[in-house]
Amino acid sequence: MGERTVKRKVNGEDRVVTYAAAGRLPEIVEAFEQAKNASSKAEIVALINVCDLPREAIPTQWLNEIEVWDAPLQRMPPLALKV
Fold this sequence. Notes:
Number of strands: 2
Order of helices and strands: EEHHH
Shape: elongated
Strand order of the largest sheet: 1-2
Distance between the termini: 40 Å
Structural class: alpha+beta
Largest sheet: 2 strands, antiparallel
Radius of gyration: 19 Å
Strand content: 15-25%
């Protein structure tokens, strides 16, 4: 996330503020963004295994795949599946 300039009206006056670059996003956020654009089961499984991507961050279209479910199940506590 690079430097950005934000323009706002405060009490009727125009204000311009420039924010410095924020650096990198946390790894889990980057993994979530990559998961949204994944094109294969292998990509999703790798993100789950390497970045500890939780089930809630897995795009819906991958939730019918056995391999995709198997990856987070290895680390889920037993009560996580309680209905």
